[in-house]
Specification:
Bound molecules: flavin mononucleotide
Number of strands: 4
Shape: globular
CATH topology: NADH Oxidase
Number of domains: 1
CATH superfamily: NADH Oxidase
Distance between the termini: 45 Å
Number of helices: 8
Strand order of the largest sheet: 1-2-4-3
Structural class: alpha+beta
Helix content: 40-55%
Order of helices and strands: HHEHHHEHEHEH
Oligomer: single chain
Length: 226
């Protein structure tokens, strides 16, 4: 069993990882992550998450199908995604800053739309990760509350990976072709796909994994009242 990082170290070790080694997690390693994630809080302890973990030949097949769907533009999202963030300039500034620095790290010019498209497609190769978790939920109301629960599950999952020396990346991109994923995994239409997490062992030498994001100071996000 690997050393487990303490809380502060795990929070700081977690980052979205976009290059992985081929070696899968062992069954025991995967089980430990799933047991941790299962402890996530949820509205009234409803535990709406249904995680489908895809590995091996099924992973390769689904990657091919998602790439084909992306090539043919067969978008079928269960939840909306607004790339303009509702016109909120503050959010857009942060989004542009992150995107610009990521393209720079990857050696792709901002106006190289073909290059940016290629990078986007890496999502459907799961960035080389040996495993993917597709996070489904039953739809309740407008979906916001169950969406929050799925977010809780995802963060526990990601922190558990980080604590054990593994890594992952949450991907809205994996929810763009929900019908393709549902069909490939035999999932009922009652379950809606919010996003996925590609995960495995990080490739320490990869350029993509040298990318670091920043955060605004706490004072910009928090108002203290007393
Ligand atoms: C719900 C969610 C969806 C995301 N979708 C994608 C995605 O589709 N592709 C991707 O490369 N990164 C995706 N990310 C990763 C974010 O870009 C990343 O979390 C953010 O830039 C902060 O970087 P960090 O995770 O390394 O701290 C997503 C993150 C979250 C929380």
């Amino acid at each position: 069993m690997a050393d487990i990082l303490d809380f502060a170290a795990a929070v700081r070790a977690r980052r979205s990882t976009r290059a992985f080694l081929a070696e899968p997690l062992t069954d025991a390693e995967l089980r430990a992550v799933l047991e941790d994630a299962q402890l996530s809080p949820s509205n009234s302890n409803s535990q709406p998450w249904r995680a489908h973990i895809v590995s091996g030949a099924k992973r390769d097949e689904l990657s091919r199908e998602l790439l084909r769907a992306a090539g043919e533009g067969r978008v079928s999202m269960d939840f909306t995604f607004d790339p303009k963030y509702g016109g909120n300039e503050d959010l857009m500034r942060k989004v542009r800053e992150q995107g610009g620095r990521y393209y720079e790290t990857m050696g792709v010019a901002k106006d190289d739309f073909a290059g940016r498209g290629e990078l986007m497609l890496r999502n459907y190769e799961f960035f080389g990760a040996p495993h993917v978790a597709f996070l489904f939920t039953p739809l309740v109301g407008d979906g916001v509350r169950v969406g929050a629960d799925i977010g809780m599950y995802a963060q526990t999952f990601l922190l558990s990976l980080a604590a054990q020396g593994f890594a992952g990346v949450p991907q809205t991109a994996l929810g763009l072709y929900a019908d393709v994923v549902r069909e490939a995994l035999g999932v009922s239409d009652e379950f809606k796909l919010l996003f996925g997490i590609s995960f495995g062992r990080p490739d320490p030498g990869a350029t993509a994994n040298s990318f670091r994001t920043s955060r605004v100071p706490v004072e910009e996000s928090v108002v203290l009242h007393s």
